Amino acid sequence: MNAFRAMKAIGINEDKGENFTDEAEVHDEPERPLKRLRSRSQEGQSSQSMMGGTSLRKPKLDDEGKLGANSLQRSPDMMKLQPGPSDSQSTQVRHAYKGKEPLLPQVSPREKRPIVERPSHGVQFKDREVDPDSVLIPKQKVVDSYALIKPKDEPFTDDLPPDDVPRYEAPIAVIRPDSFSKEDISGRSFLTGKTDDQEPPASHFGTEEDRGDSVPASSSSRRANSELAPVLEESPANLEIASSSLGEVKISLSCNSLLGRPNFHMPSQDELLKSTQEKCLRSYKIFDPNFSVMQMLKDMCDCFLELATDSSRESQERLMNVIPSISALKRSAAYSALGVGGVKGMRTHCSANGSTESNGGRELRDPESCSLVVVPQHQLTFEELRSLHDFNDITKGEEVIEISWLNEINNECPPPFMYIPQNVVFQNAYLRFTLSQINAEDCCSTCIGDCLSSTTICVCACETGNEFAYTSEGLIREDFLEECISMTRDPQRQCLSYCKACPLERSKNDEILEPCKGHLKRKYIKECWSKCACHKRCGNRVVQRGIRCKLQVFFTPEGKGWGLRTLEKLPKGTFVCEYIGEILTNKELHERNVQRTRGTNNEWHTYPVLLDAYWFLKGALKEEEALCLDATFYGNVARFINHRCLDSNLIEIPVKVETPDQHYYHLAFFTAREVNALEELTWDYGLDFDDDDHPVEVFKCLCSSKFCRNMKRPNSKFILKLYGPYGGQFGIFTFFLKVIIEFELCMFCVCAINFFMTVEYLSIG
Ligand SMILES: C[S@@+](CC[C@H](N)C(=O)[O-])C[C@H]1O[C@@H](n2cnc3c(N)ncnc32)[C@H](O)[C@@H]1O
Asked: Which residue numbers delimit the Pre-SET domain (predicted)?
């Protein structure tokens, strides 16, 4: 039975699945997971477990709807194991009653009995002979074993059991692994099987068809009904769930592989909890909707086994990492760039027999093994875990608002990257935000409150023509916005600047330094900042306050991969988000590009942006001053904004905030027109789709704009060659040239056809 069905069966609301997202927050900050783990553990200690709690009237779920915390904290009790052959027979078995007639007719309450007859090192759970019609049933206040009860045909009475014997509410069902029903079919139902003392046939999880989600058929299932958790040496764990009509649930785990381990020792409950929780954090993307509680419980058995046998070092080798998004990770260039595998770096392990088999990254499922899974070559680090995404908030709490992600098209997850809300220097970029660097005369040190409502012109407005770029509603002023749009899109208004020794050309390290191909000049906004005396909520502080719109990362249906959309209507001139990434020097970017093209995995999804608008201002920019932003590994939601040729609904505008130096600025996206709720947000990357020299492989544009520059025409190459430098650098200009020339070619053809038709007509006439 898979976890989902099992959860349904034990009365867990499916919706609870979303609560797993809370787990993702654990990864937010280094301290949080620890706090969370501790508090969980404490929680667990004070709460009742399903296994041993005093009441089983409701399924014992924690606040988050998870079985994990509570069930985990009781599991050591549940498996009160004592090492040594003699101790193996000491496990208690108690039985629940309902009224005079015991539900477990052949077993007296609180009677201690051996679990299994075999005098081995492990611990085995076994019961006495029972009625063949019995079913497994959990008991209250019973910590050590299963019980067997008669099925429902005998009416329950209202008689109370002895005080110290827990009452059990009308238990009716035992949830078994799916495969168990197969056994039923084959006539070996545990409900009807005979009790015997023979060793059960070897069987283990690996024989299950769906090991990932389903609970493996335990050998106990296949054996006589009196064996509640028979032990098999190759089976590391058995899991069974029993429930009653009232939703009472008991989950029982048995770690069978303890058998034959001479170095077995009893781990403490804390050890077990910590180890299990750590394993979960390492192995699961817990916020994933497919998160399997069953798998988590089975992992707990593994942890127990490892702790009990001091095999933690060995277990590092054998550790299973089942990551729901592993396929997405494998496909990701960012993942391989992080050095955690990629297609090449995956290997498989057989945790049943310790043998390791490399398959180059394919997932294997060996029917003979209890756990064969794909694992990265090393454990996911905390940083890597951070790259997995919470679907309620891809920002992991880094932004003021939450930004969800949604895929209604397929089961892909967003590619892994580290969400950062502010640009971060990668290595060599020169960037110092110091107060002393900022001239006092460039700041409104005498302003009070909101600069926008001041009667005098604030010094911070000087750079934008003595008028603030923002309106009191927080939008960009219409005329300012229109000018920015036309300077970016209109070939007539586009203005190029040329630097003396272009950093782009220099970074190529070619023998001959090519001349600068020109950079688009842009208008910029200057916001008030720390040296300004105005209020933090001053109207001239918009971009620095971060994302305020309701946005969503979604999987586009047109084949563009992930995209960003707004969940609310946005007026024209609204600040949407900043393009955030690593701040690289051009040289660093060039080196990355070389790696990208050389890399085996050439899926590079983001396009770095140059902060080149003011390069022309400095005579010769130092290498560490020619900067760009790369959001491939570190970035914000802007990395999901797809391209649209020319008429995109976003426009990027440079914004100066904390530095007076022109070589660094923020690149902020504002709406270029009113945008409706659920509309995809797009911007024009300025790509030239015909430029074969582009460092990052250009995609086939699916923007569906009527101005799309990626409509392949036979003569486009020719036109590009004709208009060389423009074609290479200025896509928009090239586009218009192409349109004009093609229009002329068309007109020429039409005229020619007309001419020949007329000649023919005249000759006929
Ligand atoms: C900055 S990323 C945008 C997010 C990306 N779609 C993703 O799934 O992560 C740029 C990549 O998105 C895809 N893309 C963006 N705009 C596109 C368009 N108009 N047509 C086709 N693919 C596009 C391309 O694969 C491109 O390499």
From this structure: 443-546
